[in-house]
Amino acid sequence: MIYLLIYLAAISLFAMGITMYDKRAARRNKRRVPERTLLLIAALGGSVAMLATMWVIRHKTRHMKFMVGIPVIIAVQVAAAILVWRLLP
């Protein structure tokens, strides 16, 4: 259980960092992080942190792919966690 918490903390910090990096790159007309990569990081466990960071820094908030996609990812992750929790002895 402790390893899961460490993983989630690490992926959340990474999701926050990569989202802030992408915002900064967008402002400076630099090379951006592909949307596919951002969604993959969210799917790997950084979805809540990424969504919160997007709201705070107002990044990707006009993109339906993110404003609908990330909450859907969160819902699937919560459903999977509940399912696994109920199946454990």
Instruction: State which percent range the strand residues make up.
Output: under 5%
Number of helices: 3
| Anisotropy-based shape | elongated
Number of strands: 0
Low-pLDDT stretches are none
Order of helices and strands: HHH
Mean of the pLDDT scores? Answer: 96
Radius of gyration: 14 Å
- The helix fraction, in percent, is over 70%
Question: How far is it from the N-terminal to the C-terminal residue, by CA?
Answer: 14 Å
Specify the biggest β-sheet: none
Secondary-structure content class: mainly alpha
Write the layout of secondary structure elements.
Blueprint: H1 2-27, H2 35-57, H3 64-87
Any overview of this molecule?
- The protein is mostly helical and 89 residues long.
- Helix content is 82%, strand content 0%.
- It contains 3 helices and no strands.
- The longest helix is centred in the first third of the chain and has 26 residues, at 2-27.
- The protein is elongated, with a radius of gyration of 14 Å.
List keywords for this structure.
89 residues, mainly alpha, 82% helix, 0% strand
Short recap of the structure:
This protein has 89 residues and is mostly helical.
